[in-house]
Write a structure and sequence with these properties.
Layout: H1 2-19, E1 35-36, E2 46-48, E3 52-55, E4 66-69, E5 75-81, E6 87-95, E7 107-115, E8 121-130, E9 141-148, E10 155-163, E11 173-182, H2 184-202
Antiparallel strand pairs: 1-3, 2-5, 3-4, 4-11, 5-10, 6-9, 6-11, 7-8, 7-10
């Protein structure tokens, strides 16, 4: 019996890093041609509106390409397979670039949504908020947060958008390296639960 438990635990520890990989496609925006949002296709991503750019502006990206928005009539989202009871960690890097800012600039939101198999929205929350009035220019800031998928979840969604319109607003917000990963603690709990069930069944 101990051999069964030890073997199962070893398999679990090997499985956790792979299961914790980014669930999103093209989270760093490295794939696809540069150009205006809605005009060029960015692999893995959906969008609404045209007030954004898939760019390669020096100093405004983490890899070789990144994204920026300049008006709140636009946004992007991506869906991923999710399981009820699993906790997911969302993350994005955001920057207010000095070259493309103003005294009254936009804010930015990182949002999480979950849907059932009938495409009914189960929950929607803001996990991270970038306030351009207090963040320094030309500095990447990580927005992140965790959320547990509710009962009935079939898939999750990450949503990226500008926020907080004000008179005389202008400028742009840059973002890059978006990720959604299952939290290891949740994976361990689920895995150990399975091991205990297996031990009870075999014991």
């Amino acid at each position: 019996m101990k051999k069964f438990v030890y073997a199962g635990l070893a398999a679990l520890l090997m499985w956790i890093p792979a299961a914790s990989a980014n669930l999103l496609t093209n989270g760093g925006f490295e794939d696809g041609n540069t150009g205006q949002l809605g005009v060029v296709s960015i692999p893995g991503w959906n969008n609404w509106g045209y007030s954004g750019w898939h760019h390669d502006d020096p100093g405004c990206m983490i890899g070789t390409k990144g994204m920026k928005f300049w008006w709140d009539d636009s946004g992007m989202w991506q869906d991923y397979a999710a399981a009820a009871g699993q906790t997911y960690f969302y993350c994005v890097q955001v920057m207010d670039a000095g070259r493309d800012t103003s005294p009254v600039n936009w804010d930015f939101r990182l949002e999480a949504e979950f849907y059932d198999s009938a495409n009914t929205q189960l929950t929607a929350v803001v996990l991270g908020y970038f306030d351009s009035s207090i963040q320094p220019d030309d500095t990447w800031v990580q927005l992140s947060g965790s959320i547990m998928a509710p009962a009935g979840t079939a898939y999750g969604r990450v949503v990226l958008r500008l926020w907080d319109w004000q008179p005389n607003i202008r400028g742009a917000i840059y973002f890059d390296e978006v990720s959604v990963v299952p939290e290891p603690a949740s994976l361990v709990a689920l895995g150990l639960g399975g091991l205990l069930l297996g031990r009870r069944y075999h014991g």
